[in-house]
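Here is one chain, start to finish.
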Amino acid sequence: MIGGAERKKGNMKRIVLVWIILLSILAAPNSPGLAAQEDPPFVIGTMTALSGNFFAGLWGMNTSDIDIRLLLHAYATMEKEARKGRALEPNRIAMERMVLSEDEHGNQVHRFTMKNDLFFSDGSQITAEDYAFSVLLLYSPEIRELGGTAPGAEPVIGGRAYQRGEAERLLGLRLIDKFRFSITIGAENYPYFYNLAYVNITPYPVRVLAPGCQVKDSPEGAYIEGPFDSALLEETLMDGDAGYLSHPKVTSGPYRLESFDREQATASLSVNPYYKGNLNGVKPSIQRLRVIPMVGIDIVQALKDGELHLANKVSFVQVRQQAERTRGISVTNYDREGLAFLAFLTEQDAVGDVRVRQAIAHCLDKPAIAHSFLGPYGKEVDGFYGLGQWMYKETGGNLPGLKRYPFDLRIAGELLSEAGFAYDSQGAPYISGASETRYAKDADGTLLPLTLRAGIPEDNTAAELTLSQLEASLEKLGARLEIKRMDIQTLLKIYYAQTERNFDLLFLSSNFSEFFDPYYTFHTDPAYHGVLNSTFIQDEELMRRALAMRASPCDDFSCYLRAWQAFQERFTQVLPMVPLYGNSYADLYTARLTGYHPENHISYATAIIEAKYR
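Its structure:
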């Protein structure tokens, strides 16, 4: 009897222990919880397939990759406050304070004290060393050795020498202690319209990206101590199966990456249990996300069937109107801060001539393209802007100084002749309607036919509409257009000069950062060719006008707006791209999703944090 009682007591102890363990698992901050593991994922569809550039933007600016980066990385030193419109200020969630002072040379010293309750998704504490490491990593010469295109480090004191590998220490960066660091920006870099963007830093884990290394401080600036070189980053950053570029597993944002399938262009994410919250202190309630491409699927039917819960950035008029008529589907429209365009690869002989680029622009009936694809949701644009940008709204679209290119094959033909494509196959003057093909003569008199090569994304309605119209127009003018369709990842590799660029023009679309600063986009230094200056345009005046925009005093919006208009005027003269159309977007989503307001956010990635799915 005594033995039986002891066994009963032992069984009760084991039962209690099991319950304690289960409750501990459910309550533990580093566990997503059993409910999260059992919940089916919330499926988000994107119009642009993921490329897998989930760390910074140095290897590509695919808009869907940018959304994933917003889900994975947080606690930047600066935040753009929606309630203050365009203003930047220190991130009150991540930073305790920022003290701004001047040194004896008039340089701007930004001293940050960060909060001590920030953690990465694996539970490790984020410290000032991680912020300092981010600066040292992104500006390191190793990044360029690995094919990344980083903005110039020149604004930071000592940045030029560090980025060129002439100094191992970055003079303008100091690691003060565990939770304090400073960055000094040279006085010659002011005024600058976005001002604090110079010191907008996101923390990345030094122990993951540079194992065995530490950030140290010295009177000559901060530096990385340990086996830090391009060989190390080849393994920790660039490895296609486990590198931080495509598989960042230790991150700081609202979600953490569970998996990324490059072939299927899908990503699975789960809530980061250590995320502190957005600026409003809100943490995501949707436990799991799955991001998939929407190419070739019936979007509305997938939403009705529950195979898709949110379709992001939908443009096509027929899909939007169908969704608006369908019960159980909600639609939110918002202005797009971007555009669709034909990008010229200006290092190619034919389109290296501005007259050929202008002729191509005259071959397109942009209002017809916009109406056919977008209906009432879009219109043609003539410059490097989006209809949702504050600059465009401020002007009311009244931009009289822009050079415009109405659909006119007569003018197009004259421009082609001026560019040298003025001969027929016998070397006689080209006669419109009588000659089949236009030719130009090279230096030794050899005849060269006008054949242009275009790359477009596969299964893209707008691209097909645009290129079919261009092909028909060029044929009437005696030119031939060769069109190659490809997946978006391949197209972007061509655009970013990460593979051979055997094309003259590419159909693409882009959304602008909230900091519209195209200085490096049109910088003439070949060091910025690729991810930044993707057209390779070499026009000093265009670059100078872009510089004038960034050199506007902070918060002087009228000065910036004047510089923006002057920049747009020069852009339309040299035409590195043919701007096609701007539009509003629609997010289509199940009515079970509430509190979702993409119109108030820069991305679904920030809007989804405050939404609920029931």
